[in-house]
Fold this sequence. Notes:
Low-confidence stretches: 5-24
Structural class: alpha/beta
Distance between the termini: 71 Å
CATH topology of the largest domain: Aminopeptidase
Amino acid sequence: MLKNIKYYLLILFLIIFSVNLKSNTENxxxxxxxxxxxxxxxxxxxxxxxxxxxxxxLKEGLYSTGQDTDFEKVEKEYYPNxxxxxxxxxxxxxxxxxxxxxxxxxNKLVQFIFAGLGKLDTxxxxxxxxxxxTIGSVVLKLKELEIKTAVLELPADDKPxxxxxxxxxxxVVIAALMANYEFTEFKTDKEGKEKLEYKLLIYPxxxxxxxxxxxxxxxxxxxxxxxxxxxxxxxxxxxLNPKALAEQAKILADEHNLECKVLGVKEAQKLxxxxxxxxxxxxxxxxxxxxxxxxxxxxxxPTIALVGKGVTFDSGGISLKPSDSMTGMKFDMSGAAAVYGxxxxxxxxxxxxxxxxxxxxxxxxxxxxxxxxxxxxRFLNGKTAEIKNTDAEGRLILADALSYAEKFYSPxxxxxxxxxxxxxxxxxxxxxTALMTLNDDIGTKLQATGxxxxxxxxxxxxxxxxxxxxxxxxxxxxxxxxxNYKAGTIxxxxxxxxxxxxxxxxxxxxxxxxxxxxxxxxxxxxxxxAGVRLMSEFVxxxxxxx
Length: 546
């Protein structure tokens, strides 16, 4: 009898716990942050907009990038010695500088926000990145001063920063939305406070084009999807375990008419996914293997597979990480989150390709059930690996995901994305995602895409000299490279190459760019959404003219 009571109490506890978990997750997933940013294109001329703030983008030397008459209007009607005033306050238009003056317009106080772009004498992609960061700084200043409505004038050049005007609007909108992102859901001091709403009007110039509206709409889609990814990344593992993250994939599929399939332990066992099962074996949270599918109406279009690492928390397993190194391991699912963000964009902008998204979702924990060093596992494609370190787990789940993509979808291209190696952070810091590929065409396209989007990549040599680093005496390969080879980011990529046989393939290591990027105004603190803009733009343009 006592045993039965204990049994029913246990069942009741599990039901209550699961309900609470689901409720908490749903509440967090739907949050919008402490402020909302509405961005529109204004059909009125710059000064006809009745707003609280007027934003001027200035080149170094206090030269306006917009209509000179607008800057001169401030001098004529508000501050006759404007240039002297700005210089007195050491504002010269250098990149990163922002200065605010107050005036009266139509009997209302208004703010003039002057933002420096620098000399603009470098290559177009650096100028464009400076613009994104300046837009980010402007949005942060508007929020700081609670300037709830503002108008921004775009540069007057025909093709500023190397982009036609609608493409430029797209980048401005994305940067503004990303700068507005904050993860404050668990801050108790915000309770009862009114959500602040901001409006930023973009004045594109005298000529109005329908393509400008398209640039705005695409920017809103991309910016919001990137912030959706950042929100998933920022959620802690006690709210976002593999099942909760898989649930987000299902919601995404329902909202955007995508196909979604989720495999559990039994299905993975039948398929022989030894890597996926080994990593998840130590956790009480069941693994989830998620497949998303976007289908274009046209036939005979190429298939692109996006594969993302989804370790919702990485303790290192039996090869336990030191405490300091374990903080931030909630971000180890950033690859999977980036795939979901990219699919949010792809589903709405409808590229002329078929896209498969595969995200193995696991938690890497130590326990009596966990995989061990010296274990040998067999993957879906039949190859075996010796586990020499259980903290090199990402490549194990990606191996089965890559094999699954090739076996069941025969994609033309595979791009995988993962917070895979700490070595990547030492190689490239926080500024660039590492790119490794044996296909020059795919590598060139990803690099070029990164320059346009600001989601930049840098190639590392996937040279055959590193291939022998992962040899094993007892299995086909080992899950870490031999210490005398160093180059852990490259040897990890060689491990993954064993599971791609036919497709054009590129590997993206976002260990340095997924979170904690310093000095970039529109990225802020915490999650960055690395890979979302890069992968979605790559997919959108892959088969554009065919």
